[in-house]
Amino acid sequence: MGIIPLCFKAGENTETLGLTGHERYSIDLPSNVREIRPGQDVTVATDNGKSFTCTLRFDTEVELTYFDHGGILQYVIRNLISRQSLNQLQTIRNWAALVKDAKERNLVISAKQPYESLFEIAPRDACKKES
Q1: CA dihedral for 10, 42, 64, 13, sign (positive or negative)
Q2: How far apart are the C-alpha atoms of 96 and 103, rounded to whole Å?
Q3: Entry's Gene3D superfamilies (predicted)?
Q4: How confident is the model at residue 80 (pLDDT cuts 50, 70, 90)?
Q5: Predicted local confidence at residue 119, as pLDDT
Q6: Residue pLDDT, tens place only, 23-35
Q7: Domain boundaries, the chain
Q8: How many helices (H) and strands (E) does the chain have?
Q9: How far apart are CA 81 and CA 63, in angstroms?
Q10: How far separated are the first and last CA of the chain, in Å rounded?
Q11: Where does residue 12 rank: exposed (0-12), middle (13-18), buried (19+ CB within 10 A)?
């Protein structure tokens, strides 16, 4: 859910429509946000039985996208999450490709505990440069 910007028709306002601001409003919108068009007229009904027509002030498709996501913040967060997920997926795919390649070239060792038995510890001076 997001904020729905509405504009009264020419010659109408809260006074001419007898609105106090204490009403509850129902706005007749298409169930699919993709069917909403910028500048579209909608019917607004109050809980006391009054109804009137307003113009939706979604002026661009981008504003409709923000509304569909529940607001700008939610839109940005969803985009960040999906990008991060794609990056993680790409990393997983890269690792999977590396493991597959290593297996094909018989470079993979099956490791079982204890791991220490798989490695030789080099003597301390083995890393010193010979002069």
Answers
A1: positive
A2: 11
A3: Aconitase, domain 4 (3.20.19.10)
A4: confident
A5: 45
A6: 998 988 888 888 8
A7: 6-68, 72-106
A8: 3, 4
A9: 20
A10: 72
A11: middle
